[in-house]
Design a protein that fits this description.
Elements: H1 2-30, H2 34-49, H3 53-95, H4 98-118
Helix pairs in contact: 2-3
């Protein structure tokens, strides 16, 4: 009985440790903390180039400015995409009958729910609705981010 409890406890501790490591890796990839990302970039350059303290400070500034500009561009792009999507939906609705409009709105709502379900959690490929259909497998060495164009589709053969 004690062995069973001890094994169960060890399994819980191991699972918690693995989950924490995976979360940390995911956070590193996504870079939710811009300051941490800048520190990492400067540290990498320092390791390769042996930077002075003054150079490190300047690089932190440069990366900070760059990241702010990138964020602004991404936000502008998101807004433009939303406007383009809204314009497309208006055009589509302009040619549909009332019955078709209702069905189209329902379809869009279902797609929205599927998208939300597929993006639940904190990483790509988690949840339902995105990623792999029946027969789709990851190839060795390929992560969840490789769902691009037709080049990455293996037709369910796993090759």
């Amino acid at each position: 009985m004690r062995k069973t409890i001890l094994l169960a406890l060890m399994a819980v501790v191991a699972t918690t440790a693995v989950t924490a490591q995976e979360t940390e890796k995911r956070d590193d990839r996504r870079g939710p903390n811009p300051e941490k990302r800048v520190e990492k970039q400067v540290k990498h350059l320092d390791k390769k180039l042996k930077l002075s303290d003054s150079q490190k400070e300047q690089l932190k500034e440069f990366y900070g400015e760059f990241n702010k500009a990138q964020q602004a561009r991404m936000e502008q792009m998101r807004l433009q995409e939303k406007q383009d999507r809204d314009a497309l939906n208006s055009k589509i609705n302009s040619i549909l009958t009332d019955e078709q409009k209702a069905k189209y709105a329902e379809m869009k709502e279902k797609d929205k729910e599927m998208w939300k379900e597929g993006h639940k959690g904190s990483g790509r490929g988690e949840g339902k609705g995105r990623g792999h259909g029946p027969g789709r497998k990851h190839l060795p060495g390929r992560g969840h981010g490789d769902h691009g164009g037709m080049d990455s589709f293996d037709g369910g053969t796993g090759q």
